[in-house]
Amino acid sequence: MMGEKLTLALPKGRVMEKGLAIFQRAGLKIVVADSSRALRHDAGDVILIEMRNRDIPTYVELGVADAGVVGKDVLSEMESRLFAPVDLGFAACRLSLIRKRGDIGDLYRVASKYPNLAAEYLSRIGSNAEVIKLAGNVELACITGLADAVVDIVETGSTLQDNDLVEIDVILRSSARFVVNRAALKLKADSLRPLIANLKMAVEDQCG
Amino acid sequence: MSRVSTHGVPEGTRYELADSARRRGNVLARLHRLYELWGYARVELPVLEHYDPAHPREPQSFKFSDRDNRVLALRSDFTPALAGLVRHSHSRIAAGSKEPLRLQYAGRVWHAIDPDLARTREFTQIGIELVGISNARADAELIHLARESVRVVDLVPRVEIGNPGFVRALLRLSEIPEKRHGRLADAIDRKDASDIENQLVEQQLAPDLRAAFHKVTELYGRPQVLEEARRAAPWEETMRELDRLEETLAEFEDDSELLLDLGMARRLSYYTGVTFRAYTFDFGQPLLGGGRYDGALLPYAAGFSFGLERLMLALPESKELSRPLVVSLDDAVSRRLRTAGFVVQRALTSDVDAARRDASNRGIPYLFSDTLESLISDPPDKDLLERALNSDDG
Question: Which residues in B lie closer than 8 A to residue A180 (C-beta atoms)?
Fold first, then answer.
């Protein structure tokens, strides 16, 4: 039996569905009305709050949510120090350096939604290109010539092919992580400890 | 493009208005008193420091030059500042003599960072240091006071205790090159099992040692977890670190508010012994943190510190207001009431109606002109005030 009711932060959309599925396999009873447009659900064993991907580390860090699901890419970009005890395996993708096919010249400008990871990568490879922070459709920067390259997420690679872009280098491999507030792991251990163990098992069952 | 604050103070700083300043003062007073009762003497330290490139917070410090073009820095952390005081004024301790010295401090510190939700550029640190000694009894005293610090402000404490020496011993046993220790320790500290696995995959490791690295992310909870740790890491080097923790815990009659976390591995090269953090329920961030850092700044030293601003956020909303109890037109009566401990403001007019209007507008409970007059319904401390007014010793 679970202890205190947990508050979980989940990103809107597909990751939320997959996240809910894995929590259910881990033994949580979660009921969310399909038609509901609420952002906060009292959903059986847990309270769910829905938000943008990038806001999740903030909510969990400050303890408004006890735990959540967020991509490794976001955690690395934000240099988050949250506990990340379980790799949930889904939403797998890579963060890569991408250029137009045939482009081989020096890098002067690199566009990204991940300015920190991009800058860190560029400095590691000895480039002094400047990083431009964009909000979305980053490939466009490459196609239009706004930048010589972009650092962006690649899932299947089909967007790249359609736009005649090439993945030059993989910077980071990402997938969805179960993250936990530092205080909550200690103070709500009765609920979180078994949940972490069950999530690990649910992930292994899926892989094996 | 620089953002200009519209509030008249630089971003990441703030005015503390009367009610808040009063509450902060009360909290500080309780903490100071607690430490004083345990024999921690209060010291004051300069806000201006010589710039030191080796300072632990060097990247975050505000730096500027004085008239001789020497670089100065604003105080960014009390612990190194206090170590400076010990080196200057207690040179025997700084040279390694074992003489316990208990000190407490409080004051502002400044960090040159982009302020965000959880961090401001100016904040108030309060804390204690116990230097010139390194043993389990000293560690236990600090952990005990960490717990009492939370209790003295009426919160329910939980203190988590770790020993980075345990992770350090595992890393040494593994013969993983030292330049990789930092990243691996960081993954352990975040209990990031998949990151640990990725980093270990290319390492040659004995199976039981590899298993211990994975197990360490689960070694947290009640003090019984020490037994689990002994089974998972049965080597002399790791046992020694667990012994030290056990020795510290043995100092406590009641360990029900203590938790262990053997994965605590932050600032591995700074902390050399126990580290701890205090939490309270329904507040997601640690209230205070500290540990033993022998050899980092002084031969033997340990301590902890609070951020007052965060502590204030953890406290329940208070109805305590900063306002006088009485506005008075009679100076003799005012003197008598103040002697009895009541806050009395002089009316700045001799016109009773104007004084009444002013006091009433400011929500002050009483006016005294010829008699005591209530300005609000159900005013506080009525009996006490009347007793003070009717006493003959004024």
Answer: 191
Residues of B in contact with A177 (CB under 8 A): 192, 194
- Domains of chain B by range and CATH? 1-156+281-322 (3.30.930.10), 164-272 (no CATH), 326-390 (no CATH)
Report which of B213, B243, B207, B250 is spatially closest to residue B227, judged by C-alpha positions: B243
Task: Considering only the beta carbons, identify the residue of A64, A66, A86 that sits closest to B193.
Answer: A86
Domains in chain A (CATH in brackets) are 6-91+175-207 (3.40.190.10), 93-173 (3.40.190.10)
Q: What is the pLDDT of residues B138-157, one digit of tens each?
A: 999 999 999 999 999 999 99
DSSP string, A119-187: HHHHHHTT---EEEE-SS-THHHHHHTS-SEEEEEESSSHHHHHTTEEEEEEEEEE-EEEEE-HHHHHH
Residues of chain B with C-beta less than 8 angstroms from the C-beta of A181? 284
> A186, B220: Cβ pair inside 8 Å?
yes
**Could you tell me the pTM of the whole model?**
0.88
Residues of chain B above pLDDT 90, percent: 80
pLDDT tens across B167-204, in order? 999 999 998 999 999 999 999 999 999 999 999 988 88
Quick one: closest CA in A to B258, which residue?
A: A186
Nearest residue, CB atoms, B191 vs list A84, A187, A189: A84
B190/A83 CB distance under 8 A: yes
Contact list in A for residue B220 (CB cut-off 8 A) is 185-186, 189
CA distance A91 to A82: 19
DSSP bridge pairs for B104: B42, B128
This complex has an ipTM of 0.85
Q: Is B281 within 8 Å of A187 when comparing Cβ atoms?
A: yes
Q: Is B195 on the interface with A (CB under 8 A)?
A: yes
- Dihedral of CA atoms A71, A73, A76, A81 in degrees, nearest 10, equals 0
Strands A149-154 and A109-112, sheet pairing: parallel
